[in-house]
Structures are given as structure tokens and as C-alpha cells.
Amino acid sequence: MANPKYLIFTGCVIPYRLSSYEISARKVLSKLGVELMEMPDFNCCGYPMDVINHDLMLTLAARNLCIAEKEGLNIMTLCNGCFCSLNETNKALKEDRKLREKINGYLKEVGMEFKGTIEVKHLIYVLSEDLGYEKIKSAVVKPLSKLKVAQHSGCHVVRPAKYVGRDDPENPHTLKNLIRLTGAECLDYVDEAECCGNPIIGVNEEVPFSMAKEKLDHIRAAGAQALITICPFCHIMFDLNQPRIERAFNEKYGLPVLHYTQLLGLAMGFTPEELAVNELRVKPLEILNLIR
Amino acid sequence: MSQTQEQVPSVIKAEELNSKFKYEISKMPGAEKIMACFQCGTCTADCPIARYSQFYRPRRIARMVQLGLKERLLSDEALWLCSSCFTCVDHCPQGVEIAGIVRVLRNMAVADKAVLPLVYKELATNLMKNGYVYEIPESRRQKRVEMGLPPLPKPNLNDILKIFEVTGSLKLIEKVKTIEKVRS
């Protein structure tokens, strides 16, 4: 079977704040034989504009879809938010002729037309569906069997079920399965399928901080040595904001938060430096000693 | 928060009820099924935001739409507390897309009341200026290349601005009054 080939859609927040995710994803995917092509033209996926004007979100997303259609390639996103807007727009425009005609009316002004010829996938579905668990498992040369972690899939990789149609939003298992392939144990905690709170942090900090604090309590109680994410917004909430949450609640967690691609990369034999582990806010020194 | 601390809405006067509002709303994508809401409360019970906020209650929003309390809804800042996690959408036994209705109400608040949290105005402004919703400094773009990453794709700013214009979004963003923070 030919190697999977995708246009990589990095979105805005990853180049802005989380190069560590992009670096580790590109290294791991390349070694697993996924060919990544660069977007020749780009704009924000549209997700943050949905609150202002739904048509604006749809048209911005559709413009990216048109670029991918022209390239004849499917899109792979690293970000749950980009997956949400691009996948929803792709499916809604394919299914709803009236909506498609309306959005194509806007796109005509920039010389584009949505045709509905490509698919959008999040990284974890490229891993689980295109490569498959066996292929990933065979790439693991350094099983992380001493490690106990917890997962945070985030919302938009599974919700709304109507548009995603994969995994189980009440009990997401794709990321858990992918974590277990590395040899690490993946522990359950009570609210692991709930929102991290980050999407509203720009309008209110108290609620998201309280939500994240409760999760950190549960993750610690479960005995996890690290949290594994696949969404830049969840990652920022738990890694970059962890010291602020600690100050707000007079707590100390010191819980390292790794991108899944860093965890998998370590199990595939990449060095922490190659995976930009030093870019993380909460330094995972204990884990790195444990798996050395 | 205990129930006793919850803000009790003031008495509703008959002239506030706009019986046509529910039909107006149900024409918008995502809000089609508002009439099917029978107030079971699953959305509020399962809403992670409602657990920590005194003011954000999705069931109340659905009922207020059905009653046609348009003015109250569009001027209620709690509208901006929904994190769009879609738990309410996936759990509703009647198939009502509550998060979709909240999005429709937000769009209406921007269009009819010209209000928008500051953060979204900033994101929109950045997007129109450089294609990304954040201002990515030149030093960070260089660091990318030093770290072995390809240069960032170049956005077509003419196209982006055109899309803001033709969707009517540019005018909306220019005239909004911004809200700094929303109390929870």
C-alpha cells in the first residue's frame, strides 16, 4: 500500500506558541512513512470567528478546503480546533446543497469554488486509521513500560458526534490505545472526557482555572506521572498555565504535560532534544530519568 | 456555587415576549430544533461551565428563546461563557443543538447589539492583518527555520479581507463595542 500523503495544517496557535508539537509530529510521522506536504497558501481555519459570524467561519474554512482540493490532497490537522471547523465545514457543505451554494457565492469573490473532493483528519485518526496500531507498535523500539500516564483527548476530536462520527465521545479510546502502543500504562480519571476550559479563557479565567484544577486533582489522585495531549489548547491549559493554576489555588502539581507525538517519539528512539521536550513549561525530568 | 447564590431573574412582563423570535431563530443553521426542547435539563446538568458559573445555564437559554425574550438574551453577557465543547449537543435527548443556538445568539448579539468580547476583536484584527489570529513575530519565524521547521505558509491577505467584506463581517467588527471580561 502506498504511503499516506497529507497536506499538514498547523493552524495559528502551534506556530505561535507550541513548535514542540509540530517538531515532534513531523519527526514521528516521517519515520512512520507519512508524507507531509506544505499548504501553498493558508488562512486561519476560521474556528475563532464562529462567534462573530457563522458564514465567516464557514467561508474561511472552505477557502482552505479549496486550496487542498486544488492540490488534490487530504488535510491533516494537529489542532482539535482546526479539525472541528475544517471537518464540520467540509461535511456540512458536502451534505447541504443550499449552504454550499451560499458559501460558494462568497468564495466566487476570491475566485474559488468548493467541490467536496477531499477529507479532513486529525493526527490521531491518521495514526489509528491510515497507519494502524500494528504498524505503530512495530516502530516502538524502547517501550516506556515504567511510565504511568493519563490522557486528555479534548472535545473537538470527538464532538459533536454528528460531524466527527469516530471514537466514543463519552469514553474516548483512540488516544488511550495509541498511548498503550508505547508501552506506557494509561490510567483512567473521572472527568477525562470533559472540556479543559481554554476556549473561554479570553473572556473569563476563573471558570477554566477551576475546571483545570479539578482535573489536575483527579489526575494526581489516579497516580499519573504525566498528562498526554493532542490539542494545543488543552496543552496550553495544563502546561503553560499550570504555574498560574498552582498560584491561584495555592497548590503544587508539577505534572509534566507531553504532546502525544513526544511520547511516541521517545518510544520510537528519538532523543528528548530531537522532540523539543525542553520547550515544555513543566520540565519532565523525572520521567526522562525513569525511561533512560 | 450553592443554588441560593444564583441570580434570580426579575419578573417577566408580557410585553417582553416576542412570539416570533423562536421562528426567526429556528431558521438559522444549528438552531433548527429549538422547538423540540422540553426543558429536561440534561444540557445544564452535563455542562462543565454551568458547574462553575452562577450565570451560565443552557436550559434557561433554550426556554428564553422559546418565550421570545430576545432583548434579555442578546444583552446577557453569560452568552459568552459557553466553551463550545458540544457536550449539550451530544447529550440532548431531543436532538436540540444548544451550542449551535448559543452561537446563533452570539452572532445576533454582534449584529444587532454591536457587542463583542475584546479578545475576539483582537483575533479578527490579527487575522485580517496577517492571516493568522496571532501576531507571530519575525524572531519566532526565524527560530522555526533554525529548529528545522519549514517556513510558515504565506497567506493571501487580499482574499482574506475580501471574505471579511463579502460576509458582512468587516462592518460588524468595525462598529462593535467591546466587553473586557465576563463575570462568572
- Number-wise, the strands of chain B total 2
Overall average pLDDT of chain B: 94
Radius of gyration of chain A: 19 Å
Major β-sheet annotation of chain A: 4 strands, parallel
Q: Write down the Rg of chain B.
A: 20 Å
CATH class of the largest domain in chain B: Mainly Alpha
Structural summary, described in words:
The complex is a heterodimer of chains A (292) and B (184). Chain A is α/β, with parallel strands linked by helices. Chain A has two domains: 5-123, Glutathione S-transferase Yfyf (Class Pi), Chain A, domain 2 (Up-down Bundle); 140-291, Rossmann fold. Chain A is built from 14 helices and eight strands. Chain A has helices at residues 13-17, 19-31, 54-71, 80-95, 97-108, 123-131, 133-139, 161-164, 174-181, 206-222, 232-240, 242-249, 260-267, 285-291; strands at 5-9, 35-38, 74-77, 120-122, 148-152, 185-187, 226-229, 257-259. In chain A, the strands form two sheets. Chain A has a four-stranded parallel sheet, sandwiched between helices. In chain A, strands 6-5-7-8 form a four-stranded parallel sheet, sandwiched between helices. The longest helix of chain A has 18 residues, at 54-71. Chain A is globular and about 55 Å long. The two termini of chain A are 35 Å apart. The model of chain A has no long low-confidence stretch (mean pLDDT 97). With 184 residues, chain B is mainly alpha-helical. Chain B has two domains: 14-113, Fumarate Reductase Iron-sulfur Protein, Chain B, domain 2, CATH 1.10.1060.10; 117-179, no CATH class. Chain B is 49% helix and 3% strand. A two-stranded parallel ribbon of chain B has the order 1-2. Chain B is elongated, with a radius of gyration of 20 Å. The termini of chain B are close together. At the A-B interface, α1, α2, α3 and α10 of A face α3, α6, α7, α8 and α9 of B.
